Predict the 3D structure of the following.
Amino acid sequence: MKNINTLKVGDEIFLTGTIYTARDQAHKRLTEAIKNGRRLPFELKEAIIYYCGPTKTPQGKVIGSCGPTTSSRMDKFTPLLLAKGLRGTIGKGIRSQEVRKAIKKYKGAYFITYAGCGALLSKYVESAKIVAYPDLGPEAIYRLEVKDFPLIVAIDSSGNGIYNKQAPK
């Protein structure tokens, strides 16, 4: 996403491009790989991670239901990933002060999308392919090509947030 720094809290956007799914166990493996100097399964620079674990893909569909999961569960991993070039994250709910500071420092963004609407959100996914950790099942990392994926800016690159509170530690 090239113009992320022009986005402001509350802006509604429709993202077209590549995003990667990753949840708790995938984040743990990514950060362990970084800390141990191992190659990552995808390029973090300019990437966007969607906190999502898709359901089984129904016949004739690109992907199953793919709604957001609670973002605060990834807070302990997010600052390191932002430091390594991650551009943004997509999920639901509030983030910690540490994540907000890291977003500001590394000029990223945090987006939220519609919770409870995984079946609807799957309609914006044009292709889905597992790119890492297939042993994690639905928590494997998928590369999704999305078109007009609906997002709201919850924390902008200046560190401004849509929520008045932060996630508990």
Observations:
- The longest helix spans residues 24-35.
- The domain at 11-155 is CATH 3.20.130.10 (fumarase).
- Helices lie at 24-35, 78-83, 97-106, 118-121.
